[in-house]
Amino acid sequence: MFVRPCWRPASEQDAIDLIERNPWALLVSNGPDGPAATNLPLLFDGGRDDKKVLLGHIARANRHLDLLRNPTADALAIFEGPWSYVTASWYPKRDMPSTYYYTAVHCYGRVVFQTDEELDASLESLTRRMETPIPGGWSTSEIPRSEITRRFSSIVGFAFHVDRMEAKFKLGQDEPLKDALAVADRVNGSNGELSALIYRQNAGRDS
Asked: Is the dihedral of CA 125, 11, 37, 110 positive or negative?
């Protein structure tokens, strides 16, 4: 991924935060017939201090699974954060071309498959992560335990060990500060996460 120095996030934690807020990912592997890609949620495992690990699962019937079991190179997990088309009409002097502001994190690494017990714990974590923000959200305890465990034969859990992470936060850092802040103000009502990131990544810049 092409990343100008000014587009790197202020800290690695900013990239991790983006993953945690936007866990829907694209997992890509290379194979003899070309790349395979699967859309799926990947949760950052914050309980590990020594390494970066993403937790997920994939359908056992998915042919992508064969490439994950027999890798010839690192897999790639792509996370897309907030983004917006930026019309030149938002700039104070309308003297810059239109563009996109966007954020993305690319994680390169290897897959280690889980036991059923580890898969069970990962599914519970995924459910809590997605259901907690929903008023009256659902819990796995609301259905018989067998309704959870009977699905283990159809899915395979894994831990994605991240060996390298690249992040690109293209948020106007190479443009006049007044223009970047004007965009932040404009998108604040419709895309608060993007607006907050623009302010953060441009903090401390000279006008």
From this structure: negative
